[in-house]
Amino acid sequence: MSDLYAWVPWFQELVQKIGEGGPQYLAPRAREIPWNADGTGPALLSYGDENIDPFSFLYLLASKNVSESTRERVHGAITEHFGLASRVNFSSGFYYPTPPPNAKLLFHRRGRGNPELLWRLFRSAHTGLDSVDRGDFDGALAIKDVGVAKLTQTLFLINPTAFVPIDEKGLLALRKKLYGVQDWETYVREFGAVRQLFPGCETYEIQHFAYSVAGAKEKLDVANGEVWQSLATSDGTTREQAWDEFRGNGWIRHESDKLHDLREVAPGDLVFVHDGHASGYGIGVVHRNDYTEGWTANRRLHVLWLHTEPSLLSDITRGTRFSRGAAVMQKFRDAPAYKPTFELLKALGWGGEASAPDPDPPLSPQDPPPRPDLHTLAEDVHIDENELRKMAELIEDKKQVIFQGPPGTGKTYVAQKLAACLAGSSDRVRLVQFHPSYSYEDFVQGFRPTLTRKRGARFELRDGPLVEMAEAARTAAEDDPEEKYFLIIDEINRGNLSKILGELYFLLEYRDERIQLQYSDPGSKFSLPPNLYIIGTMNTADRSIALVDLALRRRFHFVDFHPDKPPIDGLLERWLEARAPSMTWVKDVVAKANQKLDDRHAAIGPSYFMSEGLDEAKVETIWQHNVLPYIEERLFGQEERLKDFDLDKLRDKPGKDVGGEEATDSAEPESADEKP
């Protein structure tokens, strides 16, 4: 086994002993470990032996994977007190998921948890994926402060040959669909899809490769990797024996000081290993090259394997033991068995010649996907680029803006598109909608009812979307301070803002300050991180909710979304010209109707008609069943004025009036309210 994975048997032996000994074995030994250099004990030891569960223990242990000295102190003590025979070189680093510095390490809330469930899940996970009960997995996921990343990282430590961790420094950065994992069913489905991309590879190899290209400080640049070929050969061995050595140790070696090409190989390069005739053995990515220091018998080319299942190829001319390998690479590409690997490489941006495009590539080239610029966004939403740039500048200035205007002006749509553009990924954008019954407990933090294991009821403290997004943004900023997160509050003025925001009025103005939330522990402080941005949308048509207090207005920039001024002015015309050029008359109808309404805060927005496949029949349906009911509500008690909003009249086309009689251009006098 490669030194990269020396931690695997160490954890396997530790988990085996914990499983055999149970709670009575784990608790006293956990208390003997010098967890902190100053001699203080961790929170794990503060809630009685019954709450020293294996998940909390292992996740705490993972948090100590931060330096050689810490590993020597903590892991060394565990080796001694648990009587482990496995030995690890602590200076080489343990390449497994490490919790972020501010992570909550326990799988319970101050001793209130479900240790029986956790021990049951621990033992089944140790046995293997097929032994896990979905109810136990979902039950663990429902524990306070336990998310998908935390749970799957710990399951991976329990059994690194049966589970994969789903976190932002690993597979999440490669496969966007993993963001959809929310329970056991979706985890198993996506786990299976991931394994198919790495034929023959162990899950700990998959995790390490994902970390190397996405989470490591010095990432492997696979996109620009060059191509090499290698015979599976070593003096005094058969091809199969040589391949077993290469595969098992994660290296390639050749016993000759004349293979000058070996010195030119760089991290990120690809190596295609074969038997020189008609069998491919494997595909790997180089992560270290000893040969750059000169040739000796103990030098190695260290690789991370992507595909290790031998498969038939068309005939290969044997050539040299090791050399550049474009021709050999093409033989691999032509073999159906290697298609998943080339799809993986293509998705990582590899510069080899592209195969036929996959309609639904399994991996995203990166996460986030390439960030669209404002010019591209402007073409997409049909809004002037300069207007979008102004919005972006306002967002950056106060970090809080509100888009205000009548219905149908695209406030929410533009907010989502612009946020995704500025964040670089829609995965870092979250939308909530305020309404009269929405509260501080829903938005910030509060006690929520939940069922106990025995189907009883109790209340537990849960974070709302604001705190969740703030913590996600704060964690992300530790690796990249420029990474932006957006919280969109739709219909912000429909809620009781004083009731919902509470002490957050202060934080919205003073981002550098920290305060205690209503339900948080004494001494616990909360702040809004600088990389969390808030966009609100506000409907100005409903006068009962159109106003917001001056305190809120002081804390937000406001952007008008009105049909008669930028950025919405001319939007419908631009969209029609691009998507439905035969229907450009609709813009004139809407303009006339808004002129007759004579209320810019209640104007008809362009979004009503920005519908794919727009034709005359669709326009009439939209007008009769969306626009007219809205106008009738605005003009309640003014039935005579409704005749001015007949679609055919606004279009200057003979038709029927609202009473059902034939109408002509002279059938009704012009409304006295109509402006020239």
SSE diagram, text form:
Layout: H1 7-21, H2 23-30, H3 54-63, H4 68-81, H5 115-127, H6 134-141, H7 148-158, H8 184-196, H9 203-214, E1 227-231, H10 239-249, E2 251-252, E3 270-274, E4 279-289, E5 301-307, E6 311-312, E7 322-324, H11 326-334, H12 339-347, H13 374-381, H14 385-398, E8 400-405, H15 411-423, E9 429-433, H16 440-443, E10 445-451, E11 457-463, H17 465-479, E12 485-490, H18 497-501, H19 504-509, E13 532-539, H20 550-555, E14 557-560, H21 571-579, H22 585-597, H23 616-634, H24 639-642, H25 647-650, E15 655-656, E16 662-663
Parallel strand pairs: 1-3, 8-13, 8-14, 9-12, 12-13
Antiparallel strand pairs: 1-7, 2-5, 3-4, 4-5, 4-6, 10-11, 15-16
In quaternary terms, these chains amount to single chain
Could you say which structural class the secondary elements and strand pairing correspond to? alpha/beta
General form? globular
Number of helices: 25
Distance between the termini: 84 Å
What share of the residues lie within helices? 25-40%
Query: Into which percentage range does the β-strand content fall?
Result: 5-15%
The total count of strands amounts to 16
The mean pLDDT is: 82
Q: Give the biggest beta sheet.
A: 7 strands, mixed
Low-confidence stretches: 353-372, 655-676
- Radius of gyration over all CA atoms, rounded: 31 Å
Keywords:
676 residues, 7-stranded mixed beta sheet, 5-stranded parallel beta sheet, 25 helices
Walk me through this protein's architecture:
The chain is of the alpha/beta class. Helices cover 37% and strands 12% of the residues. The strands form 4 sheets. Strands 1, 2, 3, 4, 5, 6 and 7 form a 7-stranded mixed beta sheet that branches. The protein has a 5-stranded parallel beta sheet with strand order 9-12-13-8-14. The longest helix has 19 residues, at 616-634. The termini are far apart.
